[in-house]
Amino acid sequence: MPTVALHRARLHTLLLEAIGDRVVRTNQRVVGCEQHQEKVTAVCASGERIEADLLVGADGLRSTVPRAVD
After folding, report:
1. Per-residue confidence band for 33, with pLDDT thresholds at 50, 70 and 90
2. H/E element holding 31?
3. For the chain, what are the domain ranges?
4. What are phi and psi of 48, to 5 degrees?
5. What whole-number distance in Å separates Cα of residue 52 and Cα of residue 35?
6. Is the pLDDT of residue 61 over 80?
């Protein structure tokens, strides 16, 4: 899996430009994720489960997301 490093504000800008008016959820502490078919479910610390087409772990080197999808 390739790794890309860029400033978080730049990432937000690129994502928002790419998806247009779709929903972007930020400030969610993801403690795990599940892949199924072409979707991913983010499991949040609050207990909320968010199903999406894309999950971006932009929380630094110790991100839960890359470890969960390996």
Report:
1. confident
2. strand 30-36
3. 8-69
4. -65, 145
5. 10
6. no
Average pLDDT (42-64) is 82
Tokens 């892949």 belong to 35
Three-class SS state of 69: helix
pLDDT over threshold 60, residue 21: yes
3-state DSSP assignment of residue 25:
coil
Residues 60 and 23: their CA atoms lie apart, in Å, by 22
Look at residue 38 and tell me whether its pLDDT is greater than 80: yes
DSSP conformational letter for 59: S
For residue 70, give both structure tokens: 């390996």
> Going by C-beta distance under 8 Å and a sequence separation of 6 or more, which residues neighbour residue 17?
none
Of residues 68 and 45, which shows the higher confidence score?
45
